[in-house]
């Protein structure tokens, strides 16, 4: 491995495994799953068997241990399946589970981690509420201590894997107003007073199950508290760092896939008597797309390397997410444009990428919230 | 029972290769490399034999550059127990490889050697046959089914016009065809375990083998680009074009 390389030999092998997994287990069915609006639950089991769900999880519970670039490599390959929704739901454990292994009790870790990385149970993260997503510090779902339980009342929305999850890592208000009164609770499917609403219909991410969650006098045992009471805001913010990195990687990979589709198409498609690639305007457009993707990807890798080295990257990762999602916005837009009418038709990969990409500058912290974070770091 | 699986590092089958500007060969600079797909099938078959309890140890071996360690590591992630790299920067050719493999066979004394019928770089389809000749072992090439029992291996071979089954007395050489099995992908836990499995490095000199190429490549040309087809209106028109334009009938 040269000093300029971020990916080592193990990462390359993991990349090859995920690529084969995508080719064998996902690509033959992905169009059907997209139209059906879901993928079979068994895919979690298959992904677990390949070890794909165990990346970054602690070794004593069957995980690979923390390895940022292994995650990056796996994510890049998974995006090649061309369904953002599938990636989001299959990967919901990436945001739901880390709080458990970082701040959960030993008993909770022993129970939850092996089941989730083993593909038997699904983990989801629930923060956004009907009246606010970006304003985490003012969330309203309440958890009031009553003996050895918390009594939870409120609701959550836009929760990825919300329909099928078994374990929900839920942000609740246990204390006063503001960020100092927030905690994380692990809520199990089937807990009395906890119900899952209908599956929400979305612009993109069709293959993912997104839902509303309702809590009505839902009694959750106090041992399900993740991290310190009223200390949840820090956990949520800390969890965001990896989520935002993965969103940046997803955006870059989405853009790369759109570009690859274009490169194939412009050689085949003819207009005015020659292939589209024969026009300078097309070639330059593709050159611009490739340049943007390269710049964004290299920046994202740099931020990933800093995270891997243990540096605090709040500023950098926020910038990387914005750079990557802006890049993917442009590239997926241009890809549809290059495909013309075909690009507007369902069944064309760039059509799906265009829709699926739109969420990436909204979820995990909007473009505007990222700018707020950046501005704050600039002393503004 | 020990099985030896020779594997080769080649250009990844997804890569569209380009001929070097000076026509001396295929451009390998910054090209993604991988295990030859027929070798993957060989590894898979060995692993399945081990899972059935027929084989106790799988040794992977490669003759090639230092970077071929990556493919050996992959073989170990798929289930090989240990591996040997015969390191060389020569442009290795089938006879040289077969001689090196014979030396390894003499050392390791495997009861079965399973290897790909050919590598997708040179498409030579010679190494297995040459190894069998050099070692005096019986050979079952182009295997689509392999059964080991009672000191014998039954090999179903894909030949022109059908299938042929041969029975060989062990030790034997088997080369794999495309339909023998569908190789698995290495699971992450096995990739981790592979890091700790032993990988020995040897040189051609250690084995007393000369790997110098015997065949010289004069020139490498890219195949002519395929022309677009046309749709004909009738059989008559087709016959007319085949006769007068294509001049093939």
From TrEMBL, chain A:
Ranges for domain Acyl-CoA dehydrogenase/oxidase C-terminal: 230-378
Keyword Transport belongs to the record: no
Keyword tags: FAD, Flavoprotein, Oxidoreductase
GO molecular function, one term: flavin adenine dinucleotide binding
InterPro entries registered for this protein in UniProt: Acyl-CoA_Oxase/DH_mid-dom (IPR006091), Acyl-CoA_Oxase/DH_mid-dom_sf (IPR046373), AcylCo_DH-like_C (IPR036250), AcylCo_DH/oxidase_C (IPR009075), AcylCoA_DH/ox_N (IPR013786), AcylCoA_DH/ox_N_sf (IPR037069), AcylCoA_DH/oxidase_NM_dom_sf (IPR009100)
CC cofactor: FAD
Claim: Membrane is one of the keywords in the record: no
Gene3D superfamilies: Acyl-CoA dehydrogenase/oxidase, N-terminal domain, Butyryl-CoA Dehydrogenase, subunit A, domain 2, Butyryl-CoA Dehydrogenase, subunit A, domain 3
Domain Acyl-CoA oxidase/dehydrogenase middle: 124-218
Domain Acyl-CoA dehydrogenase/oxidase N-terminal intervals: 8-120
Family membership: Belongs to the acyl-CoA dehydrogenase family.
Protein name per Swiss-Prot or TrEMBL: Acyl-CoA dehydrogenase
Organism: Alcanivorax nanhaiticus
TrEMBL record, chain B:
Residues annotated as signal peptide: none
GO molecular function: electron transfer activity
InterPro entries in UniProt: ET-Flavoprotein_bsu_CS, ETF_a/b_N, ETF_b, ETF_beta_N, Rossmann-like_a/b/a_fold
Pfam families reported for this sequence: ETF
Cofactor: AMP
Keywords, sorted A to Z: Electron transport, Transport
Domain Electron transfer flavoprotein alpha/beta-subunit N-terminal: 23-211
GO biological process: carboxylic acid catabolic process
Function: The electron transfer flavoprotein serves as a specific electron acceptor for other dehydrogenases. It transfers the electrons to the main respiratory chain via ETF-ubiquinone oxidoreductase (ETF dehydrogenase).
Quaternary context: Heterodimer of an alpha and a beta subunit.
Protein family per UniProt: Belongs to the ETF beta-subunit/FixA family.
Protein name, per record: Electron transfer flavoprotein subunit beta
Source species of the chain: Alcanivorax nanhaiticus
């Amino acid at each position: 491995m040269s000093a300029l390389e971020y990916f080592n030999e193990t990462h390359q092998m993991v990349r090859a495994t995920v690529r084969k997994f995508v080719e064998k287990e996902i690509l033959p069915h992905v169009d059907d799953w997209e139209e059906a609006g879901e993928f079979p639950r068994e895919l979690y089991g298959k992904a677990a068997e390949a070890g794909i769900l165990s990346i970054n999880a602690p070794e004593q519970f069957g995980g690979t241990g923390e390895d940022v670039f292994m995650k990056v490599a796996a994510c890049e390959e998974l995006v090649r399946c061309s369904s953002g929704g599938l990636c989001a739901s299959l990967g919901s454990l990436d945001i739901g589970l880390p709080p458990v292994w970082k701040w959960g009790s030993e008993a909770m870790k022993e129970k939850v981690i092996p089941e989730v990385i083993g593909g038997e149970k699904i983990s989801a993260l629930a923060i956004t509420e009907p009246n606010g997503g970006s304003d985490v510090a003012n969330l309203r779902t309440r958890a009031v201590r009553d003996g050895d339980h918390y009594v939870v009342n409120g609701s959550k929305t836009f929760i990825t894997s919300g329909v099928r999850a078994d374990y929900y890592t839920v942000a609740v208000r246990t204390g006063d107003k503001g960020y100092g009164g927030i905690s994380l609770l692990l809520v199990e499917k089937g807990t009395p007073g906890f119900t899952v609403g209908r599956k929400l219909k979305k612009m993109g991410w069709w293959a993912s199950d997104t839902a509303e969650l309702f809590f009505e006098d839902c009694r959750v045992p106090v041992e399900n508290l993740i991290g310190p009471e009223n200390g949840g805001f820090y956990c949520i913010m800390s969890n965001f760092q990896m989520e935002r990195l993965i969103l940046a990687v997803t955006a870059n990979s989405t853009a790369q896939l759109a570009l690859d589709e274009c490169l194939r198409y412009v050689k085949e498609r003819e207009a005015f008597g020659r292939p589209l690639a024969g026009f300078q305007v097309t070639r330059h457009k593709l050159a611009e797309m490739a340049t943007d993707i390269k710049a964004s990807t290299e920046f994202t890798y740099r931020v990933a390397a800093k995270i891997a080295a243990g540096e605090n990257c709040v500023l950098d990762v926020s910038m990387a997410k914005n750079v990557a999602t802006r890049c993917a916005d442009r590239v997926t837009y241009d890809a549809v444009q290059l495909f013309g009418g075909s690009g507007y038709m369902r069944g064309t990969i760039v059509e799906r990428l265009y829709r699926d990409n739109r969420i990436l500058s909204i979820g995990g912290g909007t473009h505007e919230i990222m700018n707020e974070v950046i501005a704050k770091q600039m002393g503004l | 029972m020990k099985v030896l699986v020779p594997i080769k590092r080649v250009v990844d089958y997804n890569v569209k290769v380009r001929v070097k500007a000076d026509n001396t060969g295929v451009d390998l600079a910054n090209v993604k490399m991988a295990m030859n797909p027929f070798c993957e099938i060989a590894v898979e078959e060995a692993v399945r034999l081990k899972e059935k309890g027929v084989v106790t140890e799988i040794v992977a071996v490669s003759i090639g550059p230092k970077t071929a360690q990556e493919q050996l590591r992959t073989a170990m992630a798929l289930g090989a127990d240990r591996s040997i790299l015969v390191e060389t920067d020569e442009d290795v050719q089938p006879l040289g490889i077969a001689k090196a493999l014979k030396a390894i066979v003499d050392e390791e004394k495997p009861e079965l050697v399973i290897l790909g019928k050919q590598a997708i770089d040179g498409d030579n389809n010679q190494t297995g046959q040459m190894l069998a000749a050099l070692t005096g072992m019986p050979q079952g090439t182009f295997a689509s089914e392999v059964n080991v029992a009672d000191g014998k291996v039954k090999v179903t071979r894909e030949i022109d016009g059908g299938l042929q089954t041969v029975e060989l007395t062990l030790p034997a050489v088997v080369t794999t065809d495309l339909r023998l099995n569908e190789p698995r992908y290495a699971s992450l836990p096995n990739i981790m375990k592979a890091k700790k499995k032993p990988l020995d490095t040897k040189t051609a000199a250690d084995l007393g083998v000369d790997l110098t190429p015997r065949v010289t490549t004069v020139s490498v040309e890219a195949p002519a680009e395929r022309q677009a087809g046309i749709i004909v209106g009738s059989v008559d028109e087709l016959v007319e074009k085949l006769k007068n334009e294509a001049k093939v009938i």
